[in-house]
Write a structure and sequence with these properties.
Largest sheet of chain A: 3 strands, antiparallel
Strand content of chain B: under 5%
Oligomer: heterodimer
Strand content of chain A: 5-15%
Shape of chain A: elongated
Helix content of chain B: over 70%
CATH architecture of the largest domain in chain B: Orthogonal Bundle
Shape of chain B: globular
CATH topology of the largest domain in chain B: Arc Repressor Mutant, subunit A
Distance between the termini of chain A: 151 Å
Number of helices of chain B: 11
Distance between the termini of chain B: 62 Å
Largest sheet of chain B: none
Number of strands of chain A: 3
Radius of gyration of chain A: 52 Å
Number of domains of chain B: 2
Number of helices of chain A: 6
Order of helices and strands of chain B: HHHHHHHHHHH
Chain lengths: 173, 200
């Protein structure tokens, strides 16, 4: 018998054939004793199996079996967190990245402001007294892109100091 | 809270509704009621006691986690059985990857062997006690490959259609039909051989 017919016989038995195919199988069965015998064997086997599914009692006591299931259920459950704490955790998850972005923005804006300030005194880098007679101050000009150092001789102060000394001498005399 | 005795008097539907609301004792009663059937299904598929116990317990844990999804379209035990079958199929696929193919399996897979088997004309279980028949069926099932045993279980015991079996076993409907045909023919011949052994 062809394999295709055998599988059709099986499908016929299982009610998996279309109405047209089922009628064809019916017709061929009437003239094919081999097919009839095969169908009978399949039908008997199916009947024996369905009526006699093997029983298999569980080899563990009720309490022992249940205790393992209960433990597995409890360990699989997520920990219960207090509602307020849970709210804080979820808020923190949002706040941390937002704070980071805010900080970056702040630093960016602050650096822009530093670079765009027009007050010339903002460029004043340093005032230094090199000696009592000379002082200097320096500044950097962003717009001119240069660094200027101004040296100043403290002549008036020197004169004033000299005259003070003369006065003292005059007083002491 | 209801006692064990009170829970034992409730129907499955009532126990499921209580369990869906978090009543673990109601769920425990469901486990006690159906544990043998679920274990038996697992064992029939994997043929190993320890694996069957583990898989059946895993099925119960999964059922608890998904209980709210159970709407009652089928009976609770049918729903549970589907869960354990899927777990067993996943388990068998993993095991198969590590298992060397036997010559017997290759013969079964290549097909044609079943056509050489003589047609069994007499019911090989006639006159036997039910317990004896079940024992012989269990023995014969143990001699099938997991693919043939699975398709037999899903069709004969779970009443699934070819299309549904193909979906669960991740194969074509044609493959399901071939495997089922082989499995049935082999079962008939094995049961007949057991009878011959008994008579000789």
């Amino acid at each position: 018998m062809k394999a295709e017919l055998e599988l059709k016989l099986q499908a016929y038995l299982d009610g998996e054939l279309s109405a047209g195919d089922a009628r064809e199988v019916d017709a061929s069965l009437a003239h094919d004793p081999e097919a009839q015998q095969l169908l009978a064997e399949l039908r008997t086997t199916v009947g024996v199996l369905r009526d006699n599914e093997p029983l298999m009692p569980l080899p563990e006591s009720r309490d022992f079996y249940w205790s393992k299931i209960e433990r597995a259920i409890e360990s699989a459950q997520p920990e219960r967190v207090q509602p307020l704490l849970a709210f804080w955790y979820s808020l923190r998850r949002i706040l941390v990245p937002v704070a980071g972005v805010a900080l970056v923005l702040f630093l960016g804006i602050a650096s822009l402001k530093v670079n765009t300030v027009s007050d010339p005194l903002a460029h004043l880098a340093e005032v230094e007294s090199l000696s009592e007679h000379v002082s200097s101050f320096s500044f950097r000009s962003q717009s001119q892109n240069m660094f200027v150092v101004w040296l100043h001789e403290n002549a008036d102060e020197q004169a004033a100091t000299d005259s003070d000394d003369d006065f003292d001498d005059a007083v002491l005399q | 809270m209801a006692t064990k005795q009170e829970h034992a008097a409730l129907t499955d539907e009532k126990l499921v509704r209580l369990a869906q609301r978090g009543d673990m004792r109601a769920f425990e009663e469901l486990v006690a009621r159906h544990r043998d059937k679920i274990y038996a299904r697992a064992f029939s598929m994997v043929r190993n006691e320890d694996d069957a116990v583990d898989l059946s317990q895993e099925a119960w844990v999964k059922a608890w986690q998904r209980l709210k999804q159970f709407q009652g379209e089928s009976s609770f035990v049918t729903w549970m059985t589907r869960i354990v079958i899927n777990l067993c199929l996943d388990h068998l696929r993993k095991v198969k990857r590590h298992r060397a193919e036997s010559i017997e399996l290759m013969e079964e897979e290549s097909g044609g062997v079943e056509r050489q088997m003589p047609v069994v004309q007499v019911n090989p279980t006639e006159g036997l006690e039910r317990g004896e028949i079940r024992q012989r069926i269990d023995k014969a099932m143990g001699q099938l490959s997991y693919e043939h045993r699975t398709v037999l279980i899903l069709h004969e015991f779970e009443q699934l259609e070819y299309k549904e079996i193909a979906k669960r076993m991740q194969c074509s409907i044609g493959t399901v039909m071939s495997r089922l045909f082989y499995a049935r023919r082999r079962m008939a011949n094995l049961l007949a051989s057991f009878k011959r052994e008994e008579l000789s």
